[in-house]
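Hi Prof. W.,

I finally got the Fasciclin domain-containing protein prediction working! I wasn't sure whether to trim anything, so I left the full sequence exactly as given:
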Amino acid sequence: MFGTSARAAFRLPTVLLALLSAAVSAPLAAAASLDSVLSEQANLTTFRSLVKDRSDIFGNLPDQVTIIAPSDGAFAKLQGWNAKNTSVVTPLLQYHILSGEVALSLIPLGKWVFAHTLLDDPSQANVTGGQNVIITHQPGNVVVFTSGLASRATVLQGDIAFDGGLIQVIDSVMVVPASLEVTARDAYTDLASFLGALYAADLVDEFTAASNITLIIPRNAAFQQLAGTFAAMSKDQLSRVLRYHMLPGQVVQSEQMTANSTFSTSISGERIHVRRFNNDIFVNSAKIIQTDILVANGVVQMIDNVLSPDDDNVQPNFTASDQAPVFTPVGSTQTGSAAATPFISELPCTVSCTVSTSGGGAAAKTTSVRSSSSTDGAAAARCTAIAGAGLGLGVAVGVMGMEWMGAM
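And this is what came out:
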């Protein structure tokens, strides 16, 4: 899979840097130009055409980059692909260029790395240093690039040298990480209750505008367990709970969540505490069940329970299959597809929603919060369901195709 290249300077967690020091000092071999190397790859004709057409991007590359080149088959899988749509193509191409040389052959088996790309437009990537992509070296000498909306691309040929760095050929076009809203609606539907809660607390703009954040988001079932508890909360109480799930100014990879580490939250003076047991990671007493979900302004770590800023020292039961809720459940609780999914009805409707603008019927809320004031007038159209929500489905299907273009 991998070509031979002596250049190996790329961004890795500190624990891996020592493994690469010997390779960095190896002598450099002469390499051909980017166009010359691409012309020798029979399955990169579409990408080569893009490179030739976009000299504004590829004619001004920084020194030593890594170009992630989708194969012709990768572009053929896209519905409605239009190379002339610059609003889509420009950020897409920038997202397929990594800062520095990332030699895949030097990533140890079982390890993954976050790599910065050249996509740094704040409207597309509100993270310092350029939007991230995750590279994982899996068994069988398989290397996978994970990007936005649960998209995965497998390396077909790696570490091809050219005079400006390296080329990695992949079998699918990567997807620029989208906003939390698009990610929760279109890919990770198990984040939908949290998104709805942000709408209920009027915090969507605050969470969307923040840069370089880590969101510790409970899955839908965690909200289902506490439906009665949330219904009894005031808007201020709900806001405080939700803000405790944001780590501002820090994109924290799961690899960085070491045992006994702590991280500040968006509530002044309140921190989360990380504990580890074997390969499991716990935030306070909640277990991380899905790591490193990329979004436009940072990363999401999905957990199995709602966190409380008033109970940060609760210890997890490392051997239990499910952790007990930190909050005291109010009333009967039910999880799964038969149970109402709290806060889903708070989501603004999309074209696929079944809605009612009256006070009852299809749009009747499953969870509400008490507010000190109310506003007269017609109710806004609200979402009644999201495909997969309440089913314990972390990832929805149908991400690629037309949808990937709208997510950018």
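The two ends are 30 Å apart (CA to CA). Does that look reasonable to you?

Thanks,
D.
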